[in-house]
Amino acid sequence: PKTLRDLADARHIHIGAAVNLDALQHDHDYSRVLSDEFNAVTPETAMKFDALQPQPGDYTFQQADAFVNYAHQHGMVPRGHTLVWYSALPPWLQNGSYSRDQLMYILKDYITKVVTHYKGQINVWDVVNEAVDDDTGQLSDSIWLRGIGPDYIDMAFRWAHEANPQAQLFYNDYGTEWSSKKFDGVYSLLQGLIQRGVPINGVGMQMHMHTQFYPDNATVLQNMQRFADLGLKIDITEMDVLTSETKVDMPTTLKIQADIYGTVVKDCLQIKVCQSIVFWGFTDRYTWVHSDLHRDSDQPLIFDKDYRHKPAYDAIVQAL
Ligand code: XIL
C-alpha cells in the first residue's frame, strides 16, 4: 500500500512530522516509520535557543546537525524551528539583565549564526513564533518585546533574510483557525510587516486542535483565504488533535479526530499556497501532550503507541 509520503510526493506537497531526537536515536521503529511515511521534518526541540546557545557565545549544533543529516539521508525536507520565541530560552538569557543594544546584539548574532550554519541545508524558517496574545491580539510579553520593543519582529525577519536571502521566512502561531482576537491580531501583524517591506514569505498555522472544541470549517477556510490574500504562503506546521477532554466514547472520539485531520488536509489542498502539512509528532507513544501538557491518556496523533494506523491516518489517506 502507498504511504502518506508516496501520496504527498505525487501531489508535490510536503507531509511531515515533528521529530523527537531521543526517540529517533533510540527507537528503531520510530525512525523507520518516520522516513517511510513523511517527506518533511521539524525538530521538536533541537533547534530552539536553549539547545543551540546554552551558554553565552557557546553554540552547540550537534543534535540539530544530527537532525538535518537524518533528513538529508532520507531525502526529507527539514524545517528550521524556531529562531525567536518567548520560551525555550537558556537561563543566562532568562535571568540576565541586558540593555536594548545588548539584546539586539544577542538576537542578531543568534539569528545570523544559526541561519548561516544551515545555509544550503535549511531553506524554510519559522522566524518568529507565538508573538501575539490570545485574548487581546496585541504583541504578547517576552524578553524580546520588553527589552527591544515591538520592532524586534521586523529586525528578526531582516536579519534572517540577510543571512540567507534564499530562505523562506515564516511567522508561526496557534489559534488562527478560529474567528478571534488572536486571528485579527496575527492578521494585522502580518499586514504591517508586508506594508513595511519586511521580508516574510508565509504564515504557519500550528493547528493544535481538540476533538471537543473545534472551529467551524468555513471559518478555517476563510482564515486561510485571508492569509493567502495577503500574498503569503500558508503551512500547517504543528497539527495534533487532543482527545483527553472528550465526552463521548473512544471509537467516536477517534472518528471525530479523523474527520478533523482529514478536513484540514483537504482545506490545505484546496488553497493553492498551502503546500506543507506537518504534524506535531506522529505516534501516540511520544507527544508533548503527555510530557508538557500532562494529559497522560491523550491520543492526539495519527499512529497509536504501537505504530498502528489510527482512523486519522486513513482519513488523511482519503484526503490525499
Ligand atoms: C514543544 C515541544 O513539543 C516540547 O517537547 C517542548 O518541551 C516545548 O515545546 N508550539 C510550538 C512548539 O511552537 O515549538 C512547541 O513544542 C509546542 C507549542
Automatic annotation (TrEMBL):
Q: Does the keyword Manganese apply?
A: no
Domain of life where this protein originates: Bacteria
Family per similarity comment: Belongs to the glycosyl hydrolase 10 (cellulase F) family.
Q: What is this protein called?
A: Beta-xylanase
One annotated GO molecular function is:
endo-1,4-beta-xylanase activity
Q: Identify the EC number(s).
A: 3.2.1.8
Instruction: Tell me what reaction this enzyme catalyses.
Output: Endohydrolysis of (1->4)-beta-D-xylosidic linkages in xylans
Which terms under GO biological process does the entry name? xylan catabolic process
Is Glycoprotein given among the entry's keywords? Answer: no
Q: Which UniProt keywords apply?
A: Carbohydrate metabolism, Glycosidase, Hydrolase, Polysaccharide degradation, Signal, Xylan degradation
Could you tell me which residue ranges the GH10 domain spans? Answer: 1-319
Q: What PROSITE patterns has UniProt attached to this entry?
A: GH10_2, PROKAR_LIPOPROTEIN
